[in-house]
Amino acid sequence: MDRRPLARLRREEGFSLLELTVALMLAVVFMVAVAGTLRGALAASRSNRFRQEATAMAMESFEHARSLGWDFLAMDEIDPQAPMIDPETGVLLYYESGLASNEDLLVCATGQLAPKTVMTVEDITYTTWTYVTKVNASLRRVVVLVMWEMEGETFTHRSDSVISVVSAGGITAVDQPIFPEAAIVATGNVALHPGTTSSNPPTAHSASIWLNESFSNLDAVVDGDIVAGGVVTATPLNVYGTIEQNAGTPVNVPDIADIELWHAAQRVTAQSGTSYVGNLVLTDTTITAPYYVQGTLELQGNVHISGSGPVYATGMIRLQANALVTADGAHLVSDSVVQFESGSEWRVSEVTSAGVISFAVNQQAMTLNGGETGTIQGLAYAPYGGLALQGTNAWHGALVAHGAGGLGGIDMAGGAWIEYPANLLPTTGLVAALRPPPIPVICG
Questions:
Q1: What is the reported pLDDT for 406?
Q2: Structural domain total, the chain
Q3: Least confident span in 30-34, 69-73, 279-283, 289-293
Q4: Residue 440, domain member (yes or no)
Q5: Any domain includes 24
Q6: What is the percent of the chain with per-residue pLDDT over 70, rounded to a whole number?
Q7: Is 333 among the domain residues?
Q8: Disulfide-capable partner of 401 in 1, 45, 280, 386 (CB 3.0 to 4.6 Å)?
């Protein structure tokens, strides 16, 4: 009887001891690998959960900071053990905080932000360090650093946010007009196609843009801040200050009654000087301010205005093509529109008390040209309308448009740009009567 088939059948019915041993070893290796993977996944999940907790703590710190009034948005003391600072000089160090430069810590008796808080969540202790720095008179930076340890390793989460005097909680801006130190101030939209702002001298002021609606130009170069009530669409590398959008109402307009009193005062002052009834054309001549024209006023050739005060026209004021109008300390005022034709130029010698004013309720209450390098144009102010700057020369002054209902926009085209001189705003004498006493600031 042949037994070979039976032996083969028995071998097929089970595994040998060696085969079982190998199988068990493979199973153990597999389980160890799976366990390691699970442990790693669980550790990563736990680490992510703790980092999310730290991020949430930082957001709570920012929300608390934004809820504070301006005088309370400060540190109540400096903790000498805090990281990222030099406690002796009171500065936040740029090379540790990730900022572009050192910034002075803002500490006030009224400050309500503690430099250090500690909280434990799921046996992990979090230490939150909060810093407040003064960026400028209207902007403060809040930096939050959250630190925690896990399995002997230290982890950190750092973030920062800039808060303006406009968006700080608790500020009362109603009936308090704000004339920010900015090259462009508008209640409507601002358009630069493209445009450039700069400061003169560069260390004195920043040529910023403040507006209640939206700014949109990716080519615009802004040597300062953009603070907008609407959306800001700009190239960050082209903006050398900060960008704050959806900032509430940065530009508050003076009361109409106050503007009209100021308007009437301009007219009375002008009527105290030379008066003319009818439309007037001045060519290659000199007049002395104050000067009053009951009609339109056209200026052509070389016209010089000596003295100070308003040169007032109840109708349009037009600088005809290639006209050069110079003034010592006078300013142009019109109840209608002001138009600078191609090549015309307005130059003044006193930046703080001279400029151009239009009371027209018009989207282009003023159409202006800039001046040659080194010249000064002063303040262009449209309390009821908007204005346009054209040409390739810089307007050396500031553009302010307060028109309501979308009329208060500013449009710069044809390569026009603006250079903001030191001490123009808020010290300019032209709008001093419209500025109430400043809101007292206790801190900063």
A1: 84
A2: 2
A3: 30-34
A4: no
A5: no
A6: 85
A7: yes
A8: 386
Same domain as 208, residue 157: no
Identify whether 1 is part of a domain: no
pLDDT digits (tens, 9 = 90+) for 108-137: 989 999 999 999 988 889 999 999 999 887
What is the reported pLDDT for 175? 45
Question: Would you call 18 exposed, middle or buried from its count of C-beta atoms within 10 A (0-12, 13-18, 19+)?
Answer: exposed
d(CA 5, CA 345): 116
Q: What is the DSSP letter of 95?
A: H
Q: Which residues of 38-68 are buried (b: 16+ CB within 10 A; e: fewer)?
A: eeeeeeeeeeeebbebbeebbeebbeebeeb
Contacts of 114 (CB under 8 A, 6+ apart): 75, 76, 77, 130
pTM of the model: 0.70
Distance CA(334)–CA(324), nearest Å, equals 18
What is the C-alpha end-to-end distance of the chain, expressed in Å?
A: 111
Residue 217 sits in the same domain as residue 296: yes
Confidence of residue 150 (pLDDT cuts 50, 70, 90): confident
Judged by DSSP in three states, 228 sits in strand
Co-location of 297 and 150 in the same domain = no
Overall average pLDDT of the 343-356 stretch: 90
pLDDT confidence band for 15 (50 / 70 / 90): low
Residues ≥6 apart with Cβ < 8 Å to 393: 345, 369, 370, 371, 372, 373, 416
Count CB neighbours of 11 within 10 A.
Answer: 10
Contact by Cβ (8 Å): 87, 78: yes
pLDDT band at 263 (very low <50, low <70, confident <90, very high): very high
Report residue 213: phi and psi, to 5°. -115, -130
List the structure tokens of 366. Answer: 């003023």
The rounded distance, in Å, linking the Cα atoms of 224 and 412 is 17
Neighbours of 260 (CB within 10 A): 12
Contacts of 164 (CB under 8 A, 6+ apart): 138, 139, 140, 227, 244, 247, 250
Handedness of CA 189, 319, 419, 175 (dihedral sign): negative
The structure tokens listed for 129 are: 């360090």
Q: pLDDT value at position 135? A: 86
Q: 69 is in which domain, residue-wise?
A: 49-164
Among the listed residues 35, 160, 149, the one whose alpha carbon sits nearest the alpha carbon of residue 96: 160
**104 and 244 fall within a common domain:** no
For residue 315, the one-letter residue type is: G
Q: Which of 247, 188, 190 is CA-nearest to residue 222? A: 190
CA neighbor of 189 nearest in space, from 367, 418, 411, 394 = 411
